[in-house]
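Ticket #84: bound-state structure for zinc ion.
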Amino acid sequence: MCPHTPTCPDASAPDREAARTVVSHPEQGWSLLCNGIVVFEDTGELLPGGGTIAPHRPTDIRDRPAAHPAGGPLAPAVSPVPAA
Ligand SMILES: [Zn+2]
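RESOLUTION: The complex was predicted; output attached.
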C-alpha cells in the first residue's frame, strides 16, 4: 500500500507520525499521512481504526507553561466515535 522507500511506519507503530504526508490542509488544520492517520494542528490524531490520540505536544507554550513535559504519560482520549 505504501509506495515510499523506505516504507512508512504502520499506524500502530511508535513512530507513526514519521509517515509521509499525502494530503495537507493547513487552512483546515489537518493532514493525512500515508499510513492513514489524520494529524491535526494541535497534535491530536485520528487513527485509521477510528481511535483517537489526544493532543500530546504543547502548541501554545508562549502563553502558558507546558502541563505535560515531553515524553510524559497522558490519559487516553475518550472517543465519541464508536468503532465501526
Ligand atoms: Zn508511505
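RESOLUTION NOTES: The longest strand covers residues 21-25.
TICKET STATUS: resolved
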